[in-house]
Amino acid sequence: MTIRIRTPQTDADWQAYYQFRWQQLRAPWQQPVGSERDELEQQSHHRMLMDGDRLIGVGRLHQLDDGKAQVRYMAVDRAYQGRQLGARLLTELEQQALALGCSVVVLNARDSAVGFYQRLGYSKQHDAPSQFGIVHYRMQRYLRLPGTDAVWQQRCQQLQQSWHQHIPLSRFMQLEIAAFDGAELRCQAPLEPNINLHGTMFAGSLYSLATLTGWGLLHLQLQALELQADLVLADGSIRYLKPMQAQPEARCSLLSAKGDLTVLKQGRHASQHIRVELLSAGKVVALFEGQYKALLPRRAP
Hints:
With 301 residues, the protein is of the alpha+beta class. It folds into 2 domains: 3-142, 3-Layer(aba) Sandwich (Aminopeptidase); 149-295, Thiol Ester Dehydrase, Chain A (Roll), CATH 3.10.129. The N and C termini lie far apart (58 Å). The strands form 2 sheets. It has a 7-stranded mixed sheet, with helices on both faces. A 6-stranded antiparallel sheet has the order 8-9-11-12-13-10. Helix content is 28%, strand content 35%. β6 and β7 form a beta hairpin.
C-alpha cells in the first residue's frame, strides 16, 4: 500500500482519528475517553497518516499569537515506527505552519522523544509541564530565520564575497546568491562558464552549485543564531534526473534542513542534513542530499 497523509473529513474519519489519539496517547496512562481532546480542536489543522485504509499516525497544529504555531498530539503506530513516518508527518504540519505565515514551530516533547526532534531541527528551550509523571521539554525550530530583508541582503553579499575570495572555483563558475528571504536560499550560476561538450551544465559544476547552496544555508543559520563553527560537507549524493540546459539555479529551505545546531552551545559538534533542488529554467533536474558538519572552532595553541 502507498502511505499518504490526508485531512480527516467524514464522521468516520474523525471518529477513527480521535480513537487513535486516545489509544496511543491517553489509554496507556488510564485516562478516560475525551481526555484526548481540548478546546482548540475547531481552530486547528489535523492530519492523518494512512497505509491504505489503515490509520497509522496523527498530528495536529494550531496557530499561536506571536508568529508561532504549536504541534500537539503526534503519534505513530508502533508497528510503523523507525521508518521516518513521524518525520514525514511533522514536515506536513510544518508546511501548514508556513502557509499560515508562521516563522517558528514549538512543541512539548517527552524526554524519550527529545533526540527524535533534535534530529529534525528542533532545539530544547526549557522544561515544560510534566504529564502523567513524564518529563517534557519545550522545543522549537525556525521555519524562517529572525531578521530583516536588509540584514539578509548584507549577509548574503558577505557570504558571496567570501566564496569568491576563498573558493576560487565559485568565482570561475560565476556563482551568485540570487535570493534569501529568511526561509529559502537560491543560488545561480550561468551556463556558459560551466558548459560541457554536450551543451549542458558540467556535472561537477552542478555538484558544486548544490554543495555551496546547502553550505550557505547552514552558514546563514549560524549567523542568525549567533553561533561559531567550522563548516564541512561530510557526505553528499546527487541524483541527476534531466540535463541542465538553461538558467541553472539551486534552492534549499529551512524546512529541508534537519538537525539541531544549538548543541554547539553545549560544546558539541553539530550536524545537519540539507536537501537541495537543482533547477533548469525553473524545472527540477537534479536532487542533492548533503550531510554537513558544524565543528567547534579550533582553539589557538
